[in-house]
Amino acid sequence: MLSAGIVIRKAVSNDATSIAEIYNYYISNTVVTFETEIIRSEDILSRISKVQSDNLLW
Question: How far is 17 from 14, CA to CA, in rounded Å?
Fold first, then answer.
């Protein structure tokens, strides 16, 4: 059961900067991703667009 106030939705282009900031923390400070270089919000936006163009959720 989801807690009140939590909303799950499709990613939109305006989310790219925030997603990159969150993801970059894990790239820089952990080993939970195979990425080794900081990623730009433009790269996240490209990934979102590519996945959603295949009718998949991102």
Answer: 7
Domain segments of the chain as ranges: 13-53
Residue 21 CB coordination number (10 Å): 12
Q: What is the pLDDT along the chain (58 residues), one digit of tens a residue?
A: 556 788 888 999 999 999 999 999 999 999 999 999 999 999 999 999 999 999 998 8
Element (H, E) at 47: helix 41-53
Tell how far CA 48 is from the center of its chain: 8
**HSE-CB of 25 using CA atoms within 13 angstroms:** 5
Number of alpha carbons in the 13 Å side-chain half-sphere of residue 31: 0
pTM (two decimals): 0.82
